[in-house]
Amino acid sequence: MTTEQKNILYFVGAIIAQVIVLFAIIFFNASILQSGNELRLTAVPVDPADFMRGEYAHLGFSISRLESSYFADPSLVYAGDTVYVPVIQSGNDVYISGLITKYLPPTENIRSGVTYLKATVVDGGAEPINQQGLVGVGQKYPYPNNYRMVTLKYGFEDVFMQEGKANIPFNSVTVMTIKVDQDGNARKDKLYVNGAEWPPKN
């Protein structure tokens, strides 16, 4: 087999691998939307425009920015960490029901009505310090400041829309329905603005 033939095989193999990954992601998302537990969250719209990806509505939620006191051990939570947020449905929103942990509890230990949402710490986590107590260098050690605001990202905050349809009125009642699987992975299902599905069909 010539070098050119090998390169062609590598190229074709890379394309096939990408297609497989793409279909796996599509199947994963579809399975969550099909069989996941539904929650409703009240959203606060922010409306940036990303010229590389088109217009989108960026939404904030009551569980997007939380006091560090909600965490089981806030001194060991750092930016980039994965955490699990226990919530209970209440009307068109959710509220925190228990301590936020870095590990998903076993199913048998989760109380009835509680759903855990998987999130990533964006900022507000503890600062890494070294053995000499200097912030920002060396290995991660617990930072003594246990009271701060922690920003979380769940992955359903950005809602992409057609050009010219991303302007959700700031005084509107905006509700998103999401679906959540048993591992805490959540996907956006539908968005409603003042009771009507958004964006409008017309």
Please give a handful of descriptors for the protein shown.
alpha+beta; 5-stranded antiparallel β-sheet
The N- and C-terminal alpha carbons lie at a distance of 57 Å
- Give the quaternary arrangement of the chains: single chain
- The 3D shape can be described as globular
- Helix/strand/pairing class, anyone? alpha+beta
Low-confidence stretches: 130-144
The portion of residues forming beta strands comes to: 25-35%
Count of individual helical segments: 1
**What's the main sheet like?**
7 strands, antiparallel
Strand/helix succession: HEEEEEEEEEEEE
Question: Into which percent range does the helicity of residues fall?
Answer: 10-25%
Mean pLDDT: 78
Q: How many β-strand runs?
A: 12
Radius of gyration from CA coordinates: 21 Å
Q: What does it look like?
A:
- With about 200 residues, the protein is an alpha+beta fold.
- The protein has one helix at about 5-35; strands spanning about 35-45, 50, 55-60, 65, 80-90, 95, 115-125, 150-155, 160, 175-180, 185-195, 195.
- The relative contact order is 0.21.
Show the helix and strand layout.
Elements: H1 3-35, E1 37-46, E2 49-50, E3 54-61, E4 65-67, E5 82-90, E6 93-96, E7 115-123, E8 149-153, E9 158-160, E10 174-180, E11 186-193, E12 196-197
Antiparallel strand pairs: 1-3, 1-10, 2-3, 3-9, 4-8, 5-6, 5-7, 7-8, 10-11, 11-12
